[in-house]
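dude i think i finally got it to work??
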Amino acid sequence: MSELRFVRMGFGADAVEYQEAWDEQRRVHAARFADEVPDTVLLLEHPPVYTAGRRTADNERPLDGTPVIDVDRGGKITWHGPGQLVGYPIQKLPRPVDVVAHVRRLEEALIRVCAEFGLETSRVEGRSGVWVLGDPVEQRPQAWGSPRPEAGGGLSLDLDPRLTDEEFDPRLNGPEYAPSNAGQRREDRKIAAIGIRVAKGVTMHGFALNVNPDNKWFDRIIPCGIRDAGVASLAAELGRNVTIEEVLPVAERHLRDVLENAELKPRVIEKAPASVSPSGV
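look at this
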């Protein structure tokens, strides 16, 4: 892959409105398709905003009617805002595009970023993004359905209704179920979300890494449509202040290392074997 170009669009007081960043993505996407610019990663912060991918269900949106921007990426609803490093890699990939491989590369770069700050993260099978893994259920502050006061602090649940109710809505059942409190419950929690789109062989959208945001913004939605896990941030997990300014050069270095050194291959399309008619027919 050719050398990546990084564009720092705006942070802090210069955070970039979502629509402005989306327009810039489309402009760069068209230029990359025409080979007028190299592969480019836009890096920025957004003012608070909810965005909904194509698979978002109505019952995952804010209950109070807070505005949501519907976008053309994959995935479901999420939040962007202060304290979150957002990256939009706009890359030309060989066709047919291997979307899963692209997502895995972004995950790998972000896993390395977290590791450099001393936080072990991982993937969760069947769920995109980067995760802080929780404890096994029996080692959490309370096993579902039976008190375990000897396990120490944290929020406790007498009986977790999520085990039997697929439509359980944590927003209607108190802070003990809130996504922002998943760390106290020692459950799996997502620290980086990934949602992308590929058009004409060029990627758009990308990732959002929670550095030091107010994760209570996620409590107003069903983040990424996931009801049995929560959200995390570098600052909360490490127990110290971590800033976008600290993370930015580290993220650029690992994105460059992973994306520039990737051996890009088109997606393998398996052809169904030709049917063989029975003898004599």
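The helical segments are 18-33, 99-116, 182-185, 234-238, 244-260.
im so relieved honestly
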